[in-house]
Design goal:
Elements: E1 2-5, E2 8-13, E3 16-20, E4 33-36, E5 59-66, E6 69-75, E7 79-88, E8 91-100, E9 106-112, E10 114-117, E11 127-133, E12 141-146, E13 162-167, E14 176-184, E15 189-196, E16 201-207, E17 213-218, H1 222-225, E18 229-231, E19 236-238, E20 241-247, H2 250-264, E21 277-279, H3 281-285, H4 291-303, E22 308-311, H5 342-351, E23 355-360, E24 364-366, E25 380-381, E26 384-385, E27 387-388, E28 391-393, H6 399-415, E29 420-423, H7 440-461, E30 466-469, H8 479-482, E31 487-489, H9 500-506, E32 515-519, H10 536-547, E33 550-553, H11 562-577, H12 579-582, E34 586-588, E35 600-606, E36 610-617, E37 623-626, E38 632-639, E39 646-650, E40 653-657, E41 662-670
Parallel strand pairs: 21-22, 21-33, 22-23, 23-29, 29-30, 30-31, 31-32, 32-33
Antiparallel strand pairs: 1-2, 2-3, 4-9, 5-6, 6-7, 7-8, 8-19, 8-20, 9-18, 10-17, 11-12, 11-14, 13-16, 14-15, 15-20, 16-17, 24-28, 25-26, 27-28, 34-35, 35-36, 36-41, 37-40, 38-41, 39-40
Helix pairs in contact: 4-5, 10-11
Length: about 675
């Protein structure tokens, strides 16, 4: 039995169903696989994650296919698995349910949700892996390296070497995003995969006993993330989801995954208008907002076109901003910072036609806050509460945690008047929790699931409130988190001239209508008094930075000149005018992924009729942007309209002339409306 589904190729041989990425599977690993404690493991596989830890491999029982859903059922004497593939947009999601049919307790040490082979038809020197490195202030930085350079070179002998990516902890993206791309350069084949987990995750590329390459995708495992799961007879376990798409170019798979994410996102009805957000945190209040400062800036934010005004960290406590985090957890208004009450200031914000927003960090409670929860309501390891940066972590499986934090959200919305809530997470809890769990990794899986379920409950309870996801910027750029987030903070990058290297890449991981970028034209302490003002090019670049995704205005806009403020207003108006386009557009990377230090950067968003292209010039005299396959018919600089930037088409290239250390947005008309672009 051979068949294809969503670009994957399935083959049944000797009772085992295998799956191939770029052609018929050439590896004998079942489509999903289980490792069970105490069972015999393949001689080559102690360090590798697939290959069933049983004497009898999982064999195919049946295949059910109906419309956009494929179900594969496998079994052996110990367990039965049901792997479900579902088509969404341009990709496919996969999850597996494991049932214990043995009559005795089993301990799962790994569940390989999906195993793929036929990863390349080329030499390993010509097969490339894109790893999406990630960290605070330098989010989403893919790097391309051959499998040979990564150590998976061909030897003519079986090897124990593997290439793997993994995470343990509640920041799933603290070092790397849970996604990667495989490229067969010679045959122009691409595979993009992501693991939908806000916790432990693992992927692996290695050889089977016959020297054939395979890719395995999973949530946590015992070896890397301290995950194991006990299954009583008849008990079932459902895995994390993974998702993927195959294509013929880098842009092709990025566009297909964008369509997948858009089809599976759970956006709020309140967010349908993609409002522009002013958040006073960056280069204004930081962690110390005050009533007088807020009142002074609200009219300016409204004048510039902001739809929402957000008061960030500090509205809730009397402690100085530099020391505030060990005191968080009460989530009651500060009478020192806002002597007339927070409701008074949110009413003031609304009087200018804007909605009001407040910040919260709901997964922690400060060690100095005086707030005490039942002992089993905390994340615990080695018998102790986990304490990071003066904060304990809360376990959302516990009813008291959900009760108190639901009350906090109710107080923010119903008493203080918040219509927008920024949900932040500024620390990582570590490997997980041993409370009421078979392992810390399993505890982390359960607590992360419980937190996002709770947040979804709050979204349903308050359908008119927008909930932002933030984790020190982009430490939660994973699809489990983003699926239920109306808007996400892409980065807390504080240098506007470094932000483009993040913006140019981020649509590979988040939706254009979702990813928010800061614009802070006035950087405190950067300018000499008495003028204390930025240059025109700084204002323009900040506005271009924030215009391609969701706009987060910030900084003391009162200090701008009239001309500079006009550019801010123009940028806000332009961003709003493209909201409908942004909700249907897919990304286009003319230069591929950007790297810090590049002399130029660009990212486009396109639909059938046009492309908006942001171009940043750091040190080039003129920039040629390749547009092969786009069929461009006209172009114009649409922001800013009076900066001096000039763009013209030269065949299938776009030529842009602008000053160094500035940026512009160019609209390009497209003739081709009939087929997929590569």
């Amino acid at each position: 039995m051979n068949f294809e589904f969503c670009g994957l190729h399935f083959r049944e041989k000797n009772g085992i169903l295998t799956a191939g990425a770029f052609g018929e599977a050439d590896c004998d690993i079942p489509v999903s696989d289980i490792r069970i404690a105490g069972e015999n493991i393949s001689a080559q596989s102690p360090a590798k994650q697939p290959f069933a830890g049983t004497e009898i491999p999982l064999r195919l029982e049946k295949v059910r296919r109906k419309n956009d859903r494929l179900t594969v059922i496998q079994n052996n004497t110990l367990c039965r698995t049901e792997t479900v593939f579902e088509r969404h947009g341009g990709g496919v999601s996969v999850c597996v349910q494991v049932e214990n049919i043995s009559g005795r307790e089993l301990v799962l040490e790994n569940v390989s949700v999906l195993n793929l082979s036929a990863l390349s038809f080329s030499r390993r020197e010509d097969t490339y892996l894109y790893r999406f490195y990630n960290s605070h202030h330098c989010e989403c930085q893919p790097r391309r390296i051959s499998l040979d350079q990564a150590g998976l070179f061909e030897t003519g002998h079986r090897t124990y070497k593997r290439i793997c990516g993994f995470n343990a902890g509640s920041w799933p993206c603290k070092e790397e995003l849970p996604q990667a791309i495989l490229e067969d350069e010679e045959n122009q084949k691409f595979l993009l995969f992501q693991i939908e987990s806000c916790g432990g995750w693992y992927w692996e590329i290695a050889e089977n006993n016959g020297g054939k390459l395979y890719l395995t995708l999973s949530g946590g495992n015992f070896s890397f993330t301290n995950w194991k799961k006990r299954l009583a007879p008849g008990e079932k376990y459902s895995s994390r989801k993974v998702s993927l798409c195959v294509g013929e170019s880098l842009n092709d798979v990025l566009q297909k995954m964008t369509l997948y994410r858009r089809d599976t996102a759970k956006f709020s009805a309140a967010d349908s208008g993609l409002p522009v957000i002013f958040n006073e945190y960056m280069y204004f209040s930081w962690d110390s907002p005050e009533e007088e400062k807020t009142r002074a800036l609200v009219p300016v934010a409204a004048e510039c076109g902001a739809d929402i005004y957000v008061i960030d960290c500090g509205w809730h406590d009397e402690v100085d901003g530099s020391k505030i985090y060990p005191y968080v957890g009460k989530w009651c208004e500060s009478k020192t910072r806002y002597p007339h009450g927070v409701k008074n200031i949110t009413d003031y914000i609304r009087s200018f036609g804007m909605k009001a927003g407040l910040w919260i960090e709901p997964e922690v409670v400060g060690s100095l806050s005086g707030e005490e929860y039942p002992e089993d309501a905390y994340i615990r390891t080695n018998g102790q509460r986990v304490l990071v940066a003066g904060r304990y972590f809360l376990d959302y499986r516990h009813p008291e945690v959900r009760r108190r934090m639901s009350a906090a959200i109710a107080r923010m919305v119903e008493e203080y008047g918040a219509q927008y809530i920024k949900v932040d997470c500024n620390q990582d809890c570590g490997v997980g929790t041993e409370v009421e769990s078979d392992s810390c990794g399993e505890g982390l899986e359960q607590t992360s699931e419980a937190f996002w379920e709770w947040l979804q409950e709050q979204r349903e309870k308050y359908p008119s409130v927008i909930f932002e996801s933030c984790a020190s910027g982009g430490m939660r750029t994973d699809w489990q988190s983003l699926r239920v987030s109306s808007v996400m903070s892409a980065s807390d990058q504080v240098n506007y001239d470094k932000f483009p290297y993040i913006i140019a890449n981020i649509f590979s991981a988040a939706l254009p209508e979702q990813a928010a970028f800061w614009s802070y034209p006035v950087i405190d302490g950067r300018y000499e008094e008495p003028a204390g003002r930025p240059t025109d090019s700084e204002v323009v670049m900040n506005m271009v930075n924030a215009s391609m995704g969701r706009m987060h205005l910030a900084s003391d806009l009162k200090k701008l000149t009239e001309r500079q403020r006009a550019w801010v207003k123009e940028g806000v108006a332009f961003a709003k005018s493209q909201n409908g386009f942004r909700r249907r557009a897919v990304p286009f990377l003319p230069f591929g992924f950007a790297k810090f230090g590049d002399k130029k950067a660009a990212v486009g968003l396109l639909d059938e009729n046009k492309m908006l292209l942001a171009v940043w010039n750091f040190d080039e005299e003129g920039i040629f942007v390749p547009l092969q396959g786009m069929d461009p018919c006209n172009c114009a600089v649409v922001y800013p309209q009076d900066s001096g930037a000039v763009a013209d088409l030269r065949g299938e290239d776009l030529h842009v002339r602008m000053d160094k250390r500035t940026a512009a947005i160019i609209e390009i008309g497209l003739q081709n409306t009939s087929g997929e672009r590569k």
